[in-house]
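Class, discuss our next protein.
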Amino acid sequence: MLEHLKNTDCGTPASLSEELVTLHIDGREVTVPKGTSLMRAAVDGGIKVPKLCATDSLEPFGSCRLCLVQVEGRKGFPASCTTPAEAGMKVRTQSPQLQELRKGVMELYISDHPLDCLTCSSNGDCELQDMAGVVGLREVRYGMDGANHFKGEARAEVDTSNPYFSYDPSKCIVCNRCVRACEETQGTFALTISGRGFESRITAGQGDGFMASDCVSCGACVQACPTATLQEKTVVELGQSEHSEITTCAYCGVGCGFKAEMKGEQVVRMVPWKDGKANEGHACVKGRFAWGYATHKDRITQPMIRAKITDPWREVSWEEAIGHAASEFRRIQARHGRDSIGGITSSRCTNEETYLVQKLIRAAFGNNNVDTCARVCHSPTGYGLGQTYGTSAGTQTFKSVEHSDVIMVIGANPTAAHPVFGSRMKKRLRGDARRAGAGLIVIDPREIELVNSPHVKADYHLQLRPGTNVAMITALAHVIVTEGWLADAYIDERCDAKSFAQWKEFVARPENSPEATADITGVAPELVRGAARLYALGSADHPQGRQVNSAIYYGLGVTEHAQGSTMVMGIANLAMATGNVGREGVGVNPLRGQNNVQGSCDMGSFPHELPGYRHISDSITRAEFEGAWGVKLSPEPGLRIPNMFEAALEGSFMGLYCEGEDIVQSDPNTQHVTAALSAMECVVVQDIFLNETAKYAHVFLPGSSFMEKDGTFTNAERRISRVTQLMQPLAGYADWEVTQLLSNALGYPMNYGHPREIMAEIAALTPTFAGVSYEKIERLGSVQWPCNEGTEEAGTSIMHKDRFVRGKGRFIITQYVATDEKVTQRFPLLLTTGRILSQYNVGAQTRRTANSQWHGEDRLEIHPHDAQDRGIRDGDWVGIESRSGQTVLRATVTERIQPGVVYTTFHFPESGANVITTDSSDWATNCPEYKVTAVQVLPVTQPSSWQQGYRRFNDQQLGHLAAAQMEMGGQ
């Protein structure tokens, strides 16, 4: 029953050497890469060597002494984990001497370990228990009565401070695996071994418990622990699982693979999947632990309808709810015209579900009024990379960073927003015994963790003023052009000559120099020049003759600006100019925010594009979809989300189908959004909770969590991975089935029996997905688009290897234009926004987990100088006012933020962070300028008028919900 818990662990990491050596282990001939440990070589030969301190996710340590072997011609008993295989070796893993040595070592471990195996939470999944059996231990000659750590006063108190796992020191064998996992895998260095000899024990932080330490609750230590010392509380409560399924995390765009360990339909724990290409066995606090929201008491599982948002909800059958929504949409179209309704797809739903929503809108609604949350985050990425390279996605795999010599992070905070990739990046930045750490350039108004953290420090932190990204990227290019660091051969072969010549002349102008732009960016010219040289040339000790691999990773601090698209093109220019596109360790890599925001774009969620980024106006493409869908499609691009709001206020857009997005909380200028929704005649929300948008809805269709559906997600590296149904949908239908019901009710038939049929249709209509199938994904673990007959079977790991998708790479002039959002005497500070590790997006999922113990409210970060000028102390309530509105938050006084700039997150609806953001947006895509809002901050004593109104409205809406549920429960 517990076989699914056992994974092959090779003991030490694989060697990357291309040179092979052949040796004999227990008489078997084994050939392995040079540098492979004897332990791993034995596993390759089908032989298992006992071990406790070794695991293949960590470097060998050699402390447990169980893995001793004998090598012919050598004295002693070397540890197989730390001894490399050599050609001609003859190794024995079993002998009477080895048996006695191992048994003696195990006796010592067991003499100071509680023998409560039958009632221990790790019973059946304990390596110490397994190894005691392997070595044949039958008695402990030393007895159990001497000094120990598990009886009476000697037994330390169990640390249960962390909400997700416990630490029981009495069961610790001091193997050091948890300490090494925290250092090597996570890179937090929160754990250490305190004391010496018999008194040695694992300590978190300063010894005040896990919650008081720097631990980020990634679970790497729990995963590494071979005993019950570190154990998930769900395992303590529920016991070991009886089966497992592979699925994909539903949080950020890293797309971590997980092995969901289960009892029936109940998840016992989520274990990071070792074979997951995006995460390789690592996870963060959200993916590993914060999945309880899926069965939270706030889940709505019954459809509801009402005539007005001031009316109580009425719980109805699925048939009535779907019929009512369809009739309302048809009524609105009959009265206001075909283009008077539209829909918003979800970046949290699967590719298949998103595809069906956009298909419903185009085929059943008869228009192209479809958009997605990428509008307000990475739409400039799609435009900018499309213009320069010819495709709308990142160029690399996450693993590619391991080959980087220089890493530039722009407007992103990987350790908070994409923590598993952040850990991978930190590992490369730290370096190891074989290779020095990569150089690091951080371009951000705020001092993020990467700037200065344990064993990682940025070579250059260009702490620019918000809104000046384009001036900065052009200044960096100016240095590279004028100092002669261009990759001329690469440019001649791969790039458009005319556009390059125009760009080169533009960036070389004196007004684009670091000295000339310093007054704009606020960054010292020598720092800009140093960063440009590092990006182009590498560090001073870079090996001569070897090409420098420089990679750029960027986030919403690039795209959510009035010049977001311009900045993306500036980044693309810089990478081309230095030859840093098309191989391992380089590239332009947008860090996508949500689990399937890449997929939602791929599936045709923009009003001007069909699946695969093909324009709706192209008659050949349109004819292909018309033939498959059996309906005539409109050639006219539809409304973007901001256009929908404007049209609603004008009275021409009256119906909205919103699946899995919370536009009230996530979109800018909240009061404008709510006014638009209030003006609509029928808002249909499909979600798992009564989110902020649902409070303005007339029809609520219960959604399904990632645990309740089959499908696929596409992560930021274009990797398509399976989402596996773990439990039946709590409301009876998966999201794709609900969309299908609505389409049928509207008169456009959909008759899919399983999401694999939807993916087959996607593959048939989308050239970049032509080779994608469930069978292939399940066999290979994942695939990356483009995936078709012209690629490897698993798709394309590195984009633009030999040529750009558009042919020749196109340089585009990036003229800096100052944002309209400027500081004034009334609004003298600039507000910028971001995320925090423990919370996710609008918080609908993470706020319903124990993650709120780390971050229970949004706070405003303000520099000590600005705080002192205003009489603000740490923890004070402050009012933040912009030209859009006012809200109140608690202040955190910190030097992480520069003078003149304030910062907050947006995870809690009552905070009203987007009440103060404005309608300023990117010139090309309408992506809102969240990162630059002119504000004033002053001490206050009460909530803002908006917050007071929000509380009244929220109480009213929750009352309507409770009344409907009570009425249904009483029937």
